[in-house]
Amino acid sequence: MITKMTEGNPLRIILAFTLPLFIGNVFQQMYNIADVIIVGRTLGVDALAAVGATIPIFMVAMGATVGMTGGLAVVTGQRFGAGDMPGVRKSAAVSVVLGVVYTFFFMALTAIGIDSLLEVMNVPETIFTNAHVYISILLYGIGAMTLYNLLASLMRALGDSKTPLYFLILASIVNIILALVFIVYFRWGVRGSAIALVISEGISGLLCLGYIYKYFPLLHLQKNDWHFTWPFIWEHLRMGIPMAVQFAILGAGILVLQAVCNSFGPDIIAGFTSAGRVEQLALQPMISIGLAIAVYTSQNYGARKFNRIRQGVKVCSKILFGFSFIAAVGIYFLGSDIIMLFLGSYDKQVVESGLLYLHLTVPFYFFLSQIFVFRNATQGLGIAIMPLGSGIIELIFRSGAAIILGNYFGYKGMCYASPVSWIGASIFLAIGYFYFINILEKQKSIAFK
After folding, report:
1. Residues 6 or more apart from 54 whose CB is under 8 A from it?
2. Which are the contacts of 254, defined by CB distance < 8 A and separation ≥ 6?
3. Does 1 have pLDDT greater than 80?
4. Per-residue pLDDT at 213 exceeds 80
5. How many percent of the chain have pLDDT more than 90?
6. 120-153: per-residue pLDDT in tens?
7. What are phi and psi of 347, to 5 degrees?
8. Residue 245, SS3?
């Protein structure tokens, strides 16, 4: 269902849009969490470490894909907010073309560099083969991820956050079933887990395509919609590429962090992997509100309603401040119980290493929550340089802290790398948001004089 976010109570609109996103993101995380749980409980710690050692690579791919498709859809949302329906269709057509190009580009990068990347990440020899098999299947199946995220982003740009949720839930269930069948019955090992993930992602994308065909006449593209100019293409690339690069840069920082972690051995890798899955699940409300504020901001920017943008950003900042406190308390006290879900039997070193990471990072969740608010708000305003800049800051801070603190204080020092990066990026984004929205408001005032 198409929803205009340029009218009505900002809090009510944002929360109504966020709830399906939150549920959907939780289920999307279940793709990875289900894989980790099934692999850890059926194949053992070494297999769990093999999957965990490559998860940052997959997160780079997922982040770049979400960033690219989400950035392209910002233009769609702006055209929709401005009431330019032909522009909406042309924007969708451009996004499809760029999505296909992106998919083949990423697959080519995988073919060229995956072996070297695993070696640079210090993946232990004992788990190298399984790690290579797992991540190669996921990356060569990047087209399935692109299909779903592109179509879901276009639907969300028009205000429909519920329908992608339903398809994601179904695909998550399919993923769990297929992973169990492929691992337990077919005995395909980590290969089966990766194949199940790609198939389920493809199903969610095809379901979105069928729904758009039947219920979204606004996105029914005609022959003339495929005729667009290079400036129009650049308008999309100007948003999509910085967002993709931003997430890739963020992922690069996590790759460095994982590379440092990999040097501590399989048990530490398994503990860090389990803690990372717990953290990712806890972050879903932040991610969901971030996506909502991006759509909300882009539509209201198209309508030039800056007061509504300020109201929306303010209320989201307060909501996530409260949630970050609740999440920190919950994870601090329940972290060990949640980590045990990933293990077939109790392993003291695995549990303690995972719990150490969680205890050292949760006090800094407030800074992390504000990143999602201000990064997505500036994205919705069309200021792609800010999210990109924040990604560079996170890369420098996280990588530097991981290497330096990890070298001097071991695994415990490495755990502080993410909080250091969160503090730096949140301050940068908050300052940038207020600076640019003030400029845009002044430009509007001058234009109407």
Report:
1. 118, 123, 131, 134, 135
2. 56, 59, 60, 398
3. no
4. yes
5. 24
6. 777 888 888 999 999 999 999 999 999 999 999 9
7. -130, 110
8. helix
* pLDDT for residue 111 is more than 70: yes
What pLDDT, on a 0 to 100 scale, did the predictor assign at position 151? 95
Check if the beta carbon of residue 428 is closer than 8 Å to that of residue 378.
Answer: no
Long-range pairs, 166-169, Cβ under 8 A, ≥24: 167/203, 167/204, 167/207, 167/208, 167/211, 168/24, 168/27, 168/28, 168/204, 169/23, 169/24, 169/27
Give CA–CA dist 159/295, Å, rounded: 8
- CA 299: distance to chain centroid? 21
Whole-angstrom CA distances from 407 to 5, 122, 123, 396 are 49, 15, 18, 16
Whats the size of the chain, residue-wise? 449
Q: Express each pLDDT in 224-238 by its tens digit.
A: 899 888 999 998 998
Residue 425: partners with Cβ closer than 8 Å, 6 or more residues away = 367, 371, 375, 390, 391, 393, 394, 397
- Closest to 67 measured CA to CA, from 106, 31, 111: 106
- By the 10 Å C-beta count (0-12 exposed, 13-18 middle, 19+ buried), 217 is classed as exposed
Cα(125)–Cα(378) distance, integer angstroms: 43
Tokens of 169: 């839930």
pLDDT digits (tens, 9 = 90+) for 346-377: 667 778 888 888 888 888 988 989 998 998 89
**Residue 110 near residue 136 (C-beta atoms within 8 A):** yes
- Of residues 10, 58, 108, 89, the one with CA closest to residue 276: 58
* d(C-alpha 101, C-alpha 244), whole Å: 13
Query: Could you tell me the CA-to-CA distances from 74 to 173, 295, 361 in Å, in that order?
Result: 30, 7, 32
* CA nearest neighbour of 158 among 346, 331, 55, 302: 302
Average pLDDT in the chain: 84
Count other Cβ atoms within 10 Å, centred on residue 348: 9
- Reference 308, options 112, 441, 131, 167; nearest CA is 441
Residue 339 and residue 355 in contact, taking contact as beta carbons nearer than 8 Å: yes
| pLDDT at residue 449, as a whole number | 44
Kindly tell me if the per-residue pLDDT of 380 is higher than 80: yes
The whole-number pLDDT of residue 448 equals 44
Element (H, E) at 26: helix 10-43
pLDDT digits (tens, 9 = 90+) for 149-192: 999 999 988 888 788 878 888 888 898 899 889 988 898 988 99
Q: How far apart are the C-alpha atoms of 162 and 152, rounded to whole Å?
A: 10
DSSP state of 182: I
